[in-house]
Design a protein that fits this description.
Strand content: 15-25%
Distance between the termini: 20 Å
CATH class: Alpha Beta
Radius of gyration: 12 Å
Mean pLDDT: 96
Order of helices and strands: HEHEHEEH
Strand order of the largest sheet: 2-1-3-4
Number of domains: 1
CATH topology: Glutaredoxin
Oligomer: single chain
Structural class: alpha+beta
Number of helices: 4
Shape: globular
């Protein structure tokens, strides 16, 4: 799922936790973790909203959350950032953080 300025407010206002992967096309580590993010989005569908936010196209969102390095993955519950992953990591590391949201 693509997260952008047109849908982020509705997603955050929903009753499911939200995981946002801040990335860019030119970022090697972003492309490396992309398959994990996509797999987890499918595995947690209906429980957690997991999407990607292109930093090149969404300056406002990137600045709002103070994202300075990519990849950065934010874990948001009840509209509040409760955890963050900066840089590449394993799928299991992401799974642990998602499990804490539930």
């Amino acid at each position: 799922m693509e997260i952008n300025k047109t849908n982020i407010d509705a997603l955050l206002a929903g009753d499911q936790p939200v995981v946002i992967d801040f990335w860019a096309e030119w970022c090697g580590p972003c492309r490396a973790i992309a398959p994990y993010v996509e797999e987890l989005a499918a595995e947690y569908e209906g429980k957690v909203v997991i999407g990607k936010c292109d930093v090149e196209e969404n300056d406002e969102i990137t600045m709002k959350y103070g994202v300075r390095n990519i990849p950065t993955i934010l874990f948001i519950k009840n509209g509040e950032v409760v955890d963050k992953q900066v840089g590449g990591c394993s799928k299991s590391a992401l799974e642990e953080k998602i499990a804490k949201l539930l």
